[in-house]
Write a structure and sequence with these properties.
heterodimer, A: three-stranded mixed β-sheet, 2 helices, elongated, B: alpha/beta, Rossmann fold
Chain lengths: ~120, ~220
């Protein structure tokens, strides 16, 4: 739903780094997005194509690396991935306990860009 | 053909918004103003909670309201009827409030004579979770009819909130809402979040919520 505003943010970061690196064209933009973020890649690509027109990032390809939602079991001190869209409940797969807490899944950044 | 080279970026996508939000938070802290960002899905009871909250705290604090709900004057009129300063942000088709919008709205308030700003974000559990507004605390409202599986559907929102209000508790006997299962799901995502089961209709449970807010305001002032 908020892809337009997010895409504006991506483009701003990309253009800043492209200019600092003296790039004449951005070929690829690689993002790292955690599993906790709802983001439609299709809309992201459409908005980027539209917003990027007339900039050095025009026509750049967007690649999204999705990182998993990871929890840690307190007693076991081990981590495990959870697909929250599919899981009703998510006890620790090692001990079956419920003393688990969120470790990661909120990544929301531009990792790197390929430029010419 | 020119060579393709790699530039390592490693920068947060919404870094501009995040930086402005930090500035807003610092300014508010300096002025001793507490900004509560109230988020929920549509119909969970944001306006009801807001009005009950300002009625409970208006004697103790100078309160103002920022209304961010999409293009509706109804909520702003309800607030204006309470006689507190209110700013309506016309978000139009936007699905969330962001730091620039909030900065502008705060500019319309007399912050030197305000202690508490209650801000009603756009009714939506996805987008407002992604955009820091410069708030002092984030609270979300969920209502019993929405179901105890909401944390699984909107985990980001539940992971960022300091307080989770469960409204419409008077409806509990009519729904399959398991409060203990809900607590467990929230705790796994966000062990620091406080949960407040209450009913804006009957007033049951409101005192705990008000006490939490009073304590949070006192803590922000002592920093």
């Amino acid at each position: 739903m908020h892809e337009l505003a997010v895409t504006e943010g991506i483009l701003a970061v990309v253009l800043r780094h492209a200019a600092a690196g003296g790039a004449s064209r951005v070929v690829t933009v690689r993002l790292r997005i955690g599993g906790l973020s709802d983001l439609s890649e299709e809309w992201l690509a459409r908005y980027f194509a539209w917003l990027g027109k007339g900039t050095v990032a025009e026509g750049a390809r967007i690649e999204v690396e999705r990182t998993p939602v990871v929890f840690r079991c307190g007693p076991c001190d081990r981590t495990f991935d959870v697909d929250l869209k599919a899981a009703r409940d998510f006890p620790c797969p090692f001990c079956g306990g419920n003393d688990v807490s969120l470790v990661s899944g909120r990544e929301f950044f531009v990792r790197e860009i390929e430029v010419m | 053909m020119e060579n393709i080279r790699l530039i390592e970026v490693r920068e947060e996508i919404l870094s501009d918004n995040r930086d402005l939000a930090r500035e807003i938070r610092e300014t508010l802290c300096r002025k001793g103003v507490f900004l509560l960002n109230l988020m929920s899905s549509p119909g969970a009871g944001k306006t009801s909670l807001l009005i009950r909250t300002l009625r409970a705290l208006r004697e103790a604090f100078r309160i103002a309201v920022i209304e961010g709900d999409i293009d509706s004057m109804v909520d702003a009129e309800k607030v204006a009827a309470e006689g507190v300063p209110a700013v309506q942000i016309r978000t139009g088709s936007a699905c969330h409030l962001d730091a620039p919008m909030v900065e502008k709205a705060l500019g319309e308030l007399d912050l030197d004579h305000t202690d508490l700003v209650l801000m009603e974000n756009v009714g939506n559990l996805v987008c407002p979770a992604e955009f820091d507004t410069g708030d002092t605390r984030k609270a979300m409202i969920l209502s019993v009819p929405e179901g105890d599986d909401k944390p699984l559907k909107y985990p980001l929102m539940f992971s960022i909130c300091h307080a989770v209000v469960v409204n419409k508790m008077d409806c509990l006997p009519m729904f399959d809402f398991d409060l203990e299962v809900f607590r467990e799901r929230v705790r796994k995502l966000n062990p620091g979040a406080e949960i407040f089961p209450l009913s804006c209709k009957t007033g049951e449970g409101m005192d705990r919520w008000i006490a939490w807010l009073e304590k949070a305001i006192a803590e922000s002032r002592s920093r």
